[in-house]
User: Fold these one by one.
Assistant:
Number 1:
Amino acid sequence: MEENNNGLFKKLVWLSSLGISMVAATFVGLYIGVYLDDKFSTKPWLTILFLIIGIIAGFRNIYTLVKRYGF
């Protein structure tokens, strides 16, 4: 019974890290885009560009984690 709970918790932690990885990469890209748009007065183009880059980075992080641990 104890081993089943440990396996379940490991999977929950792994799934949580996937979500955090995706959200963090997206928000970092969004923040960089907003900052550069304010600095260079190019609204909304750099925000959109870096948001897309952040989303792509998030999916890449998920792909890397799935490939490495493969649950």
Number 2:
Amino acid sequence: MKALALFSGGLDSLLAIKLTQEAGVEVEAVYFLQPFLAPAEEEKLIAHLQKLVAQLGVKLHIVRLDEEYLQILENPKHGYGKAANPCLDCHIFFFRKAGAMLDKLGASFLVTGEVVGQRPKSQNRGAFPKIDEETGLAGLIVRPLSARLLPPTIPEEKGWISLDHCPSIQGRQRKVQLELAAKYGLEYEAPAGGCLLTNVEYGRKVKDLIKTGGLTVDGLRLLRIGRHFRLSPHFKGIIGRNHRENQILFRYFYRQRNTEGLYLFKALGAPGPLTLGVGKPSADDRQNLAHLTCRYSDHPWDTPVLVKILVSGEKHHLTTISVLKKQGTLDPEQFRIT
């Protein structure tokens, strides 16, 4: 008998796998990689996840989410949480994706580290039946950490698995999980804030992309970099905050330099940020983003500054704009997303 576990990278997922293994069931795991990270960060995360599941001798499948996932973010059936987090829709989407993998892997049911009452939107007694029904997997999702608090599943009823050795955890307390981790000698990391979509500032930037029709995988990845400004419905700017972010913005522009709609701004003559413009700017939009780029440079006030602009496209080219760095010329807050 084999099960497929939805692995989040957290302790609860590790424990759910271990408890399922103790019941004599072979387990493989799947991690759904959301499009929030740069490629180098993705590689680091995947290596970390592989190290975690290696403690249990489990094969890990990495599934990169793409435009299909963006449709969930753009129009969630069950709505958002406090930010841009469609938690219930995400859970349903992940379970559907995992359920579609069962036959190919020779697995008979799903396992998850969900706990009754741990998350207000997606982990409660009312949400679990809704998730199971909408995924078409009713009775085939086993939640070992809250096993005796929930109705028996098909694997239990058919004798594929016994959960008599499992706990009955509920709520946000972690005492039982920590005791089990010590018992099994599991290495893990403490929770680090959860899904980025629950972050209010990040969610504001996601909703800006949705509102302006710019929600793409690349667009999501850029949201973690720099200061973000909406110059007009068709144009936004991202201003680097340090050398690392400047490098990321430059590499992004360079890779996409043959694609229309990208602009790289740099105020010449003094240290300062690189600014990535995305979209279709008017002349005023370009002028305003040049002013903002200059605003965050080290040029002294009341100084005329030449701003260089690299323009992408099949005929990518260089142009310049002259601006005056003067206090009160332009208020960044009128354009700031976050």
